[in-house]
Amino acid sequence: MYCRFVARAHPASESASPAFLRLAGDPVRWRLLKELAGSDRRVHELMGLVARPQNVVSYHLGRLRSAGLVSARRSSADGRDTYYRVDLARFGTLLVETGRALHPGLQLAEGTAGGPGRPPGVVVARLLFLCTGNSARSQMAEALASARSGGRVEAASAGTHPKPMHANTVRVMRERGIDVDSHRSKPVSGFSGQRFDHVITLCDKVREVCPEFVGHPRHIHWSIADPSASGDGDEATLPAFRQTADEVEARVVYLLAGLGALAARRPG
Q1: Is 3 a catalytic residue?
Q2: Which of 157, 177, 215, 266 could form a disulfide with 129 if both were Cys (CB 3.0 to 4.6 A apart)?
Q3: Long-range contacts of residues 264-268, Cβ cutoff 8 Å, at least 24 apart
Q4: Contacts of 190 (CB under 8 A, 6+ apart)
Q5: Is 131 among the residues known to form the active site?
Q6: Burial 147-175 (b: 16+ CB within 10 A, else e)
Q7: Would residue 234 count as lying in a domain?
Q8: Which CATH number goes with the domain that contains 47?
Q9: One of 136, 210, 252, 262 is an active-site residue; which one?
Q10: 120: number of Cβ within 10 Å
């Protein structure tokens, strides 16, 4: 005598099939996603990194863009160039949905970017954020990296052509509970003899002229538009500053999580 088990199809098995896995599972697309997860890139750079011709890279980027995994932005340094970036938040959401489609018990934590990291007092890395004026984007990144790491990273920022801190930078950081009113813009030359583990450029123009630093730190590029160029006057540009702060914070959080330097957020 034996028990006979009859397999029953789950009613949502077809509709919940993980199209995401089929899309991202292609070897070329997976390599593209891996490269873009580390730094924004242009097509010709990706061609060298994945060893594929332009038509192949462009085709796969198009598929990833259609799925919302990759986005593109015209370079502010050369309008003929386009920078591509991976949407890590979208990627995380799809991983969550894929897990649930396989089994409802797979409750992946959505919206998290790593664990609590290393204990306070342990400096994981030194980071330098660069943009043109050091008045907005790089200042936000420096402040957010210091605050969100709980002191686990040493963060600094500078500009190739420093100008006074923008009032909206102070305002949007204050909205996030971070006071940068005493921060001042600094020239890149002031850091020429210092060692950093990662140098992050947030401006396409600065990426083209970024100097070499001792110790050959890893270079990361985030192609982010200058919010101060979005309109005339502080009130007109404030929405762009808030949007920029959102993007910078998301990228900083993922960077810190990858370094094991993301501090645990307190409830509430």
Answers
A1: no
A2: 157
A3: 264/116, 264/117
A4: 158
A5: yes
A6: bbbbebbbbbbbbbebeebbebbbbbbee
A7: yes
A8: 1.10.10.10
A9: 210
A10: 10
Q: Could you tell me if 248 and 141 are in contact, meaning their C-beta atoms sit under 8 angstroms apart?
A: yes
Number of structural domains in the chain? 2
The pLDDT tens digits along the chain (268 residues) read 455 544 444 444 444 457 888 889 899 999 999 999 999 999 999 999 999 999 999 999 999 999 889 999 999 999 899 999 998 988 888 888 888 878 777 765 554 455 555 666 678 899 999 999 999 999 999 999 999 999 899 999 999 999 999 999 999 999 999 999 999 999 999 998 899 999 999 999 999 999 999 988 999 999 999 999 888 889 999 999 999 999 999 999 999 999 988 887 654 4
DSSP, collapsed to helix, strand or coil, labels residue 203 as: coil
CB 223, CB 85: distance < 8 Å? yes
d(CA 194, CA 13) in angstroms, rounded, equals 56
pTM score, whole prediction: 0.86
Which two structure tokens, joined as six digits, stand for 210? 């970024």
Does residue 252 lie within any of the structural domains?
yes
- Name the active-site residue from 69, 88, 130, 203: 203
Single out the catalytic residue among 101, 131, 255, 257: 131
Tell me: do 87 and 152 sit in the same domain. no
189 and 97 belong to one structural domain: no
Find tokens 């100097």 and name the residue.
211
